[in-house]
Structure formats: structure tokens, C-alpha cells
Backbone:
């Protein structure tokens, strides 16, 4: 059996979505901006996709949803254009974000810091959640933008977006949320929450890779990042990616219609998996389930290094993920784990399992068995559970350096 | 970046078959207990290196025959990734049958070589070289415990890059000999900094005592000083002609003389001097200088100090020199 439990990284493109996209490669291929019939032929499908997207997030007709290449582009666009519009050409100088954002936010913020912008990186609590009162206390009259993720890719924990939106509205500060892990997983209703911008991406909810969007409340001003022709009202140039836009619309509809029912099905499987895994001694899961995306588990297993665990899961045909030291190319500890105040050990023993609506009960049972076997094998090898004590003088107290 | 890096290598695909096999089925994983070793008339040494909080940890067991210091049996326990477990396994194998004195000569390079499928292809990708370093560290620690000496006494030189085992002395020599100007050049010449990258600059996987960026800066500074001294010495020996030099050479020579004979006294009093310009006239060579810090307000800067600078430069470079403070 093969089990894919890395759906926070990317998802399988739903075959229904692929089917919806298919005509727009070799049959209906006109450039929608052309005047001839080839150009107008895809218009009904694009209009439908736009309707599907607006409906899925309950965007108002006065709002803009601009298709981009991915959420990384959407995130870059908001941060860089707010910088140009309100800092370079305005009287603001400050951006508020969190320590646990996606690299497309954090790296862009570092870049802006190099350009002289002041950036505040807010801490999160032991649940991995940023608290609204913390956000409030760091907003100044020089703050141009608050950018806080809707839900965490690593932990699945959901931030108090409604409260933060209210604070930003009262303070008159722009509010952006990277909603990549929220859209399609949990209800996102932009009429009940005040956000100026949200970013999202199709491949996180069974759409194609290479297409995302930026929501802009009330069509408000934001300088374009990609200049060119007059596509999408001149807000984001580049020939419309018709098949991907059609696919994104279809994927959003499939993910969000009956979302409560879909969520509870996924949650039941996730809870079954989580309950079984925490039966293992010396394990714990980050964050309260009630405030977590229903598909995500971030579990720490004492004595089992993350990459070693991924290796054994992979041998069992299970795809999972870790941000632990050995697995990432830059060999650093998982910054999200460190930010939630977990000790250094957790940063090296975290395993993330993320389900989808395609995950089956059989897959969950298979994973539970294989996971427990892997933990048993690796704990047998692990020095953390060795019985014979080191020779006097041979102990290690803390993380020591390879020094001479 | 280049074509090969557009996608980038898959970490696990770069492992040798030996690494994969030993991770899946380590041969020497396990423990030896005090009582067992004692029963056989042997001495047990157990040493830890690393910790869970570092991301990897290893515990090495040596059962040693005290009559000949031979390691008759060895086991390990490891908290780590596949490379760490495979490295520990091979390290343990390399120790068995050796005396403690022989075993202490095993380095992480030996461990990595033993993990290769063929002698030409590295067993692990560069960023994983680091995992084999612990094997070397824990061996030294175990040997130190057995011999009753400090583990550090086995290290004869300061190792800056542990992955490639490049010493401080080698780095300084290579920088000087090849006139290296960047860390990338150092990596090309010595492989130092080409693996886990911790030794390049602070903020890497682990904190280090020595960093390539500092070694490069210090060595370059040393080289500059040496060059200036050489220029000044050449002048002083009468080997060159100050008046025929280019402006840049003149400034360097003047600065070298000031650096050698005058600057230390100015700095001691909280001041300094900088050369602004050199103008060649018919009968004189005017050197314009500016006093910095405390010298600017010091009375003797227009009398005694000025005279000292001028006479030193006249003596060492040219008697046509006149020094003019501005």
C-alpha cells in the first residue's frame, strides 16, 4: 500500500479538475484578450471559474480576485507593493508579521529590511498561535501592513484572523493573510472577516500547481508587480493561464461545497490516526485539535530523529514531512518548532502528517501499524533509550560543539 | 547555479548503497554492559557525543582487553538520520580489532571512505558530511577516557573545517600562496566550507571557534601589512627611487613608513593620521596629511610630531619630502 500524507506540501490534482482543464489545451486555446472567436471561446469557462472562486471565499462583487502563478507570487506582490506605495512613496516605515510565516513572507520581509523597512516578527504562544492582543500592541502609526497567516502549514493551527482583522480595521492598518493552508481546508468567509488581502494557491486543494490568487478587498489600490499588457484590469499582466484558471475554479468548488461534511470526514480519520499514535509513550502533538485544520498532525517522538523517521516511513511507502535539522538542505532546526517554545529536542523529532479528502480508512490503519513499527525500530537503535550509562566523564550534558 | 542545480539533487538518492543498507540494517547497533565485559576480564568504555537537542547523538561502546589495549568488541546507539546511523555503524566496525592507540587515528574521512560504493563517488551529499564528524569526535572521547587524558590532546592542530579536516595552518598558507580573496576560492582550493558550511560564518548548523570569513580577513590584513613592510623595506634599503614611483606606490610607501615608525605613538595618545595627497613640485615633494582623533587638537601636532613624521619620511624615502598638515 502507498499512503500520501504530505497534503500540506501539495495535493493530488483531482481527476475531475484535470477533466475540466483538458479542453483548454488543444481545443479551446485562444488568447482571451484577442478579439476573434478563438479569443472569446474560453470566456464562458473563465467566467464560471471566476464565479466559483468568488463563491468559495464569499468575495463581494466589488472585490478583486486576481489570478497569479502561485501564493509565493501573491505574498511577494502584497509586501513589495505595500512597500512601494506606503513606505517608499508614503509616510509609513513598518510591517508587522510573525516568526512562523511561510518563507515567501519571511524572506521577502528580510529583503525589505535590507531596504530599510522596520519589520516586527511576532512570537506565537505554546499552541503555535499568535495572540490578537500581541498584534495590537505592536501596531504604531507608522505601520503600513500586518501580514499574518490564516493557518500554519507546519502545525495546522488557526490564528484569530477575525479579531486581528477587527484590530487592523480600527487602527486603519492594511491587513494581509497568507491563507494557503486555510482556503479549501476550513471555511473562509470574507464577508464575516475583515482582511484587505489574502493569498491562496490551487495545488493545496487538489487543483493544478502553478496557479494561485490574490484577493483585494473593494478593488483598493495596490501597484502591480508584473507590468505589461492590460490583463485582469492591468493589475497583473501576462496572458491568462486559461486551463489552470478553469482548474482552480473547479478545485475550489469541489473543496468548499459541503465543506463542513468534508471536514468532519477528514477530521474523523485524522483523530483516529492521532489517538493511535499518541498511545506511544513519550510523544506529543502540537496544538489543540479544536483550533487546528482538520487534516494536520505535528507529532514529536522522543528519541527518534525526524529524518530517520521519514526514512523508515518512506521504506513503508508512506510520504510524510519534517522540518527537522537533518532533512532540510540548510541543516537548521525547525524554526516553527523553536518559535512555539518547544525545547530543542522537539525541533529534531517532529513529524508532520497531513491528510486529504482522498485519504482512506485503510490507509490510516496501514499508517498506524507502520508508524509504530518504525518508532520501535528507531528507538531500539536510539541512544536516548540506552540502558548502560556512559563511563564517568563520558556523559554529555548539553548540546556540545565539535570543538578542540 | 547552473543546469544541474535547476531541480537540485534529491538528498536520499545521493546516498551510497552502503549507507542505505546500513541504515536499514545496522550491524553493530546495541549495547555492551559493564557486567559482561568484567566477566570476560575486559574493561568497558562508554562515551556519548552530541545530544538530542543538537539533532544528533551517538553512544559508543568499547570492550577493551587491558593486556594489549585491543578493542575486542564495539557497539553503538544513535539518535540521528540515516547517515548518522550508517556512519556510526561503520565507525564501530573500523574500531574492532584495533588497539585504542590505533583507533584514535580513525577520522571522519576514513568513515566516509568506508561508506563509499566505489572509491571515486562520495557516499553522502556535501551537507551530510557533517554526520560522520561525530564518529571521529566520539572515538577521541572514548580513547581519552581509557587512557585517562583529555580528548583534546589527540588533536595536533586546530581543525577549522571538520567535514574536510582542513587546519588553520593549511588555510592561512593556501590563502597566502594563492592570493585567495573569497571564501568560494578557499572552498575550491581546500574543500573547507564545502560540506555542512558551519565553518564559513556564524549562524550555521553549529557555532564554531574559527570561521573562514574571519580567517580570510585576518590573513588578507596580514598580507597587506607584509606587502607594505616589504615596500618600505625596499625603499629603506635604497633599492627603489621614491621620486620615480607612481602616486599609488608613493602613498603605500608613505603609509608603510608611518605604520612602521609613527602610527603606534599616535594611536597610544588616542589619535591617528591619514594621507590626503602627494604633490610633486620642482624642488620638493609635498605630502598632505590630516590628523585624526586626539591629534587634531594636540599642540605638538604642528611642531614635534610633524617634525618626527617629516624627518622619518625624509630619512626612509626621500630628502625632498615636506609634510603639510591640513
Residues:
Amino acid at each position: 500500500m502507498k499512503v500520501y500524507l504530505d497534503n500540506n506540501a501539495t495535493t493530488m490534482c483531482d481527476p475531475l479538475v484535470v477533466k475540466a482543464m483538458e479542453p483548454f489545451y488543444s481545443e479551446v486555446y485562444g488568447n482571451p484578450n484577442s478579439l476573434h472567436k478563438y479569443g472569446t471561446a474560453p470566456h464562458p469557462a473563465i467566467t464560471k471559474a471566476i464565479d466559483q472562486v468568488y463563491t468559495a471565499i464569499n468575495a463581494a462583487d466589488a472585490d478583486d480576485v486576481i489570478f497569479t502563478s502561485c501564493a509565493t507570487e501573491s505574498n511577494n506582490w502584497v509586501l513589495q507593493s505595500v512597500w512601494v506605495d506606503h513606505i517608499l512613496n508614503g509616510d509609513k516605515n513598518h510591517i508587522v508579521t510573525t516568526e512562523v510565516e511561510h518563507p515567501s513572507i519571511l524572506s521577502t520581509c528580510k529583503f525589505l529590511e535590507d531596504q530599510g523597512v522596520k519589520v516586527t516578527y511576532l512570537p506565537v504562544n505554546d499552541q503555535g498561535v499568535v495572540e490578537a492582543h500581541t498584534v495590537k500592541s505592536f501596531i504604531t502609526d507608522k505601520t503600513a501592513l500586518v501580514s499574518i497567516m490564516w493557518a500554519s502549514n507546519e502545525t495546522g493551527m488557526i490564528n484569530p484572523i477575525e479579531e486581528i482583522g477587527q484590530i487592523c480595521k480600527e487602527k486603519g492598518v492594511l491587513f494581509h493573510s497568507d491563507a494557503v493552508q486555510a482556503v479549501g481546508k476550513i471555511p473562509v468567509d470574507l464577508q464575516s472577516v475583515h482582511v484587505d488581502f489574502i493569498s491562496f494557491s490551487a495545488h493545496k486543494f487538489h487543483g493544478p500547481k502553478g496557479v494561485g490568487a490574490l484577493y483585494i478587498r473593494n478593488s483598493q489600490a495596490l501597484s502591480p508587480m508584473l507590468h505589461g499588457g492590460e490583463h485582469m484590469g492591468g493589475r497583473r499582466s501576462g496572458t491568462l493561464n486559461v486551463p489552470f484558471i478553469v482548474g482552480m475554479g473547479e478545485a475550489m468548488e469541489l473543496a468548499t461545497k459541503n465543506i463542513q461534511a468534508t471536514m468532519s470526514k477528514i477530521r474523523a480519520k485524522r483523530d483516529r490516526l492521532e489517538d493511535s499514535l499518541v498511545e506511544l509513550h513519550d510523544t506529543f502533538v502540537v496544538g489543540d485539535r479544536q483550533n487546528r485544520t482538520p487534516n494536520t498532525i505535528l507529532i514529536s517522538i522522543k528519541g527518534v530523529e525526524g529524518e530517520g523517521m521519514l526514512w523508515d516511513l518512506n521504506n513503508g511507502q508512506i510520504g510524510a514531512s519534517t522540518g527537522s535539522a537533518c532533512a532540510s538542505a540548510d541543516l537548521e532546526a525547525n524554526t516553527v518548532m523553536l518559535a512555539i517554545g518547544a525545547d530543542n529536542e522537539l525541533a529534531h523529532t517532529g513529524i508532520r502528517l497531513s491528510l486529504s479528502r482522498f485519504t482512506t480508512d485503510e490507509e490510516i490503519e496501514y499508517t498506524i501499524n507502520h508508524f509504530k513499527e518504525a518508532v520501535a525500530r528507531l528507538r531500539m537503535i536510539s541512544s536516548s533509550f540506552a540502558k548502560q550509562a556512559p563511563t564517568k566523564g563520558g556523559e554529555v550534558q548539553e548540546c556540545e560543539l565539535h570543538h578542540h | 547555479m547552473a543546469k544541474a542545480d535547476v531541480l537540485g539533487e534529491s538528498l536520499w538518492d545521493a546516498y551510497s548503497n552502503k549507507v542505505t543498507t546500513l541504515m536499514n540494517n545496522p550491524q553493530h547497533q546495541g549495547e555492551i554492559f559493564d557486567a559482561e565485559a568484567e566477566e570476560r576480564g575486559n574493561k568497558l568504555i562508554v562515551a556519548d557525543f552530541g545530544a538530542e537537542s543538537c539533532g544528533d547523538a551517538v553512544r559508543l561502546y568499547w570492550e577493551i582487553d587491558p593486556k594489549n589495549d585491543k578493542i575486542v568488541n564495539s557497539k553503538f546507539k544513535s539518535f540521528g538520520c540515516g547517515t548518522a546511523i550508517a556512519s556510526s555503524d561503520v565507525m564501530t566496525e573500523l574500531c574492532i580489532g584495533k588497539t585504542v592507540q590505533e583507533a584514535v587515528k580513525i577520522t571522519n574521512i576514513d568513515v566516509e571512505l568506508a561508506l563509499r560504493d566505489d572509491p571515486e563517488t562520495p557516499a553522502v551529499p556535501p551537507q551530510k558530511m557533517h554526520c560522520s564528524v561525530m564518529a571521529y569526535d566520539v572515538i577521541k572521547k572514548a580513547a581519552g577516557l581509557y587512557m585517562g587524558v583529555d580528548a583534546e590532546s589527540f588533536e595536533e592542530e586546530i581543525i577549522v573545517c571538520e567535514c574536510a579536516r582542513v587546519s588553520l595552518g593549511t588555510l592561512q598558507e593556501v590563502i597566502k600562496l594563492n592570493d585567495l580573496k573569497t571564501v568560494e576560492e578557499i572552498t575550491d582550493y581546500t574543500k573547507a566550507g564545502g560540506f555542512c558550511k558551519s565553518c564559513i560564518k556564524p549562524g550555521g548548523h553549529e557555532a564554531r571557534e574559527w570561521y573562514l570569513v574571519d580567517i580570510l580577513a585576518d590573513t588578507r590584513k596580514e598580507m597587506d601589512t607584509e606587502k607594505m613592510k616589504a615596500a618600505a623595506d625596499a625603499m629603506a634599503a635604497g633599492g627603489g627611487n621614491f621620486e620615480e614611483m607612481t602616486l599609488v606606490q608613493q602613498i603605500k610607501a608613505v603609509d608603510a613608513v608611518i605604520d612602521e615608525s609613527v602610527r603606534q605613538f599616535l594611536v597610544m595618545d588616542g589619535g591617528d593620521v591619514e594621507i590626503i595627497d602627494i604633490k610633486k613640485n620642482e624642488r620638493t615633494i609635498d605630502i598632505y596629511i590630516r590628523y585624526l582623533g586626539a591629534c587634531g587638537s594636540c599642540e605638538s601636532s604642528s611642531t614635534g610630531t610633524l617634525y618626527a613624521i617629516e624627518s622619518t619620511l625624509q630619512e626612509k624615502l626621500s630628502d625632498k619630502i615636506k609634510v603639510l598638515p591640513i
Observations:
- DSSP finds eleven helices and eight strands in chain B.
- Chain B has three domains: 3-155, 156-238, 241-325.
- Chain B touches chain A through 61 residues (CB under 8 Å).
- The radius of gyration of chain B is 29 Å.
